[in-house]
Amino acid sequence: MKKRNAVLLSTPYLIWMVLFTLIPLGVVVYYALTDPGTGEFSFINIRQMGMYLPVLWSSILYSLVSAVVCLVIGYPVAYYIAHCSQTAQKFLYMLVMLPMCMSFLLRTLAWVGLLNDQGIINNFLVAFFNWLRSLGGIFSRIPQDFGRLTLIRTPGAVVLGMVYNYLPYMILPLYSTIVKIDHRLIEAAEDLGCNGVQTFRRVILPLSVPGILSGMTMVFVPAVSTFYISQKMGSSSTVLIGDVIERQFKQGNNPNLGAALSIVLMLLVFVCTGIMNRFGGDDEGSVMV
Amino acid sequence: MSKELIRLRDLVMEFDGERILDGINLYINDHEFLTLLGPSGCGKTTTLRIIGGFLTPTSGTVTFDGATINDVPPYKRQINTVFQRYALFPHLDVYDNIAFGLRVAKVPKNEIDQRVREMLEIVSLKGYENRHIDSLSGGQQQRVAIARALVNRPKVLLLDEPLGALDLRLRKDMQNELKRIQQALGITFIYVTHDQEEALSMSDTIVVMDKGRIQQIGKPEDIYNEPKNAFVADFIGESNILDGVMLSDYRVRFFDRTFECVDKGFAENEPVDVVIRPEDVDVVPPKQGHLVGKVTAITFKGLNYDIIVEFKGFKWLIQSTDYQAVGSTIGIRLNPEDIHIMHKSEYSGMFGDYSSYSAEYDELTEDAEDEEA
C-alpha cells in the first residue's frame, strides 16, 4: 500500500484519537494544574496529593502481589496448555478466555455473593458444621453457628478479585510465548546434560521471559487503576487510588485533585511498562502490551 | 580398526502402528566416521535419535561400551548431537552457547573458559564470543553448533543432516572441516545425510538405508563398486540396471549377447540385475561396438556430457567427454570390470532405466528432505 493511501485510511481514527484522547488529556492536565476555587494556575493539587501517597503505594503493592500470584498460578497452566494436543489447546484456550466474555461487574458481584458474611461459602460452612454437630458425640461440642469466616472486606479478597479478573491476561501471553519455544531447544538442552529441572531453569524459563513480562504488565496496569473490585470486595482500609480518583469526581469533592491523581497514575503506568519492556528487550510477546 | 563402541540389535521402531525401523543390526567402532545414508523417510534420523536417547525403540537393544542404554535418558549419555538446523539457544551468545554443557556439568570456571576458547579456535570463530546467535550466518551457526557439542568431549558425536541448510560451496568447505575435526579429535562421528556425494567423500563406513531396513554396509568404494541391489546402485551414483542371466561364473548374457565379467558364485542360469555405471561405458564407432544405439538426448554437465542412448527400446545413460549429435548412431564397448552383477531383489525393475530421463534427474533425491521424523 502506498504511504498516501495509508494516511488516508487511518485518518478517521487519527481524528478520533485527537478528539477523544489527546484533547481530553489536555483537559485533564489543565484541571490538574488549576486551583479548584479560583480557577487560576496553581500547584495546589500537586501539593495536596501528598496525603494520598500511602493509597498510591498500597495500590501498587496490591497490583504487584496480584500480578505475582497470577504468574505463579498462570505459568503452570500456560505451560500445560502449550504442551497439549492441538485440539486440546484450542479448547483450553477458549476456557481461559471464557470468563472474559462475561461482564466484569457481574463477575465481581458474583464473588461478593460467594464471600459475603451470609454468602454461599459461609452458609455452606455453617450448614456443614451444624450437620456435624447433629451427629452427636464429640461433634456436639461444636458451638452454634461455628465456621463463619470473614472473607469479604479483607486485603485477601481484593487480591482474589484482581487475580480472578486478570488471570486470563497473564495466561494468554505466557501461553503464546511458551508454545513458540522450539522443541529442539529442549532436546538440545537434554543432549548437553540437563535433567528436567535444569532444562526448565536454563532454557524454558529464560525463553519465557517476554511472556512473563508481558503478562505482568497486562495484569498490573488494569489492576493498579481499578476501583470497583476494592469497593465491592474490600473495606475502608483497602481503598485504592482508583477509588480515590472516582470519589474526587463523583462525589464532587475536587475534580482538580482527581485529575492530578490520574496524571500521576498514568505516569506510573508508563514507567512500569517502560521498565518491563526494557527488560524484555525487543522480543516478540511484549508486543502485546 | 579399533574396538566396537555402539551396537544396535534388532531395532524395531513403530509409530501409530507404522513400522519406521524394521530390524536394524549395526555396530559402530570407536573413532569411526559412519554415515547413515538414505532417502527421506528411510529411518536414518529415527536411528540417530534412538542412539541419542530421544526415542526409545519399540523392541531391540542399544548397547554402548557393552552396557545396554535403551532407557538411559539423553543427559546421561556420553553422546552429543549437532541438530538439524542447529537448535542454538537464542537467549545466549556464542560463548554461552558453547559453554552451556560445561556449566551444566559444573566444570570450574577457568577450565570452561579455556575449553571454550580452544573450541572457538578449532571452528575458526575466534572473536565471535559475544555475538548474538541471530547475527551469525548459516555457516557460522553451524560451527557454533559443532563447537557446542564437541566442547563436552563426547565419545560420540551425532550429526543430523548438519550441512543441509548451507549452500553448495559452504557445504564443501564444511565437509572438509568436519573430516579434519573428526580426525584431529579422534571422536566417533555418526552422520545422517541423504547426499550420496557427502557420504562417499567423508565416511569410513556407509550404511545405506531404505524403508526402515539396512540395504548395505560397507566402505565408500565397496558400496559404489559393488552395490548389493538395484536400490543401492541407483541411490549411490548413476546406474544403468538391466535384466541379465548369469550363464556360469564370469559369463553373463544380456541384450542377446554374452559378455565376460568378473563376478562368480551365482547359480547357473540365475536371473540377475546387471549394473553398468555411465562413466564406465566406452563410446566407439558403431562397427567396433558390442552394442549399437541411437543418441536421443545430450546435456552438457561441465565435466562431461550426459548422453541418453537407446538400445532396443531401453535407454541408457552414458557419460562421455565427447559430444555426440542427437540422432546419430554410436557403438559402445564394455570391459569385463565395467559389468557388475547383483542378485535379484525387491527393487529389481524399479531403477536404472532412463526412459523418463530429464535433465533434472540428479536433483530428484535432494529436495524436500528435511521434514523427516
Strand count, sense and barrel status of the largest sheet of chain B are:
6 strands, mixed
Q: What is the CATH C level class of chain A, in words? A: Mainly Alpha
CATH architecture verdict of chain A: Orthogonal Bundle
Structural class of chain A: mainly alpha
Counting DSSP H or I runs of 4 or more residues, the number of helices of chain A is 12
**Shape by Cα distribution of chain B:** elongated
| Proportion of residues in β-strands of chain B | 25-35%
**Second-tier CATH architecture of the largest domain in chain B:** 3-Layer(aba) Sandwich
**SSE run of chain A:** HHHHHHHHHHHH
Rg of chain A, Cα atoms, Å: 24 Å
Instruction: Give the C-level CATH assignment of the largest domain in chain B.
Output: Alpha Beta
- Helix fraction of chain B, binned, reads 10-25%
CATH topology annotation of chain A:
MetI-like fold
Strand order of the largest sheet of chain B: 6-7-8-3-9-10
Query: Into how many domains do the coordinates of chain A divide?
Result: 1
Question: How big is the Rg of chain B?
Answer: 24 Å
Assembly status? heterodimer
Structural class of chain B: alpha+beta
Number of strands of chain A: 0
* DSSP helix fraction of chain A: over 70%
What does this protein look like?
The complex is a heterodimer of chains A (289) and B (373). In chain A, helix 9 packs antiparallel against helix 12. Chain A is mostly helical. The model of chain A is unreliable at 282-289 (pLDDT under 50). Chain A has helices at residues 3-32, 44-48, 53-82, 86-97, 104-115, 120-134, 155-178, 183-191, 196-224, 228-233, 241-250, 255-280. The longest helix of chain A is centred in the first third of the chain and has 30 residues, at 3-32. Chain A has a single domain (33-116, 151-288), classed as MetI-like fold. Chain B is an alpha+beta fold. Chain B has 2 domains: 4-223, Rossmann fold (3-Layer(aba) Sandwich), CATH 3.40.50.300; 238-363, Nucleic acid-binding proteins (OB fold (Dihydrolipoamide Acetyltransferase, E2P)). Chain B is built from 8 helices and 20 strands. In chain B, the strands form 4 sheets. A 6-stranded mixed beta sheet of chain B has the order 6-7-8-3-9-10, sandwiched between helices. In chain B, helix 2 (94-104) packs across helix 3 (109-122), helix 2 (94-104) packs parallel to helix 4 (138-150) and helix 3 (109-122) packs across helix 4. The longest helix of chain B is centred in the middle third of the chain and has 18 residues, at 168-185. Chain B is elongated and about 75 Å long. The A-B interface holds A 182, 184-185, 187-195, 198, 202-203, 206-207, 209 and B 52-54, 73-75, 79-81, 83-85, 87-91, 100-101, 104-105, 148-149, 152.
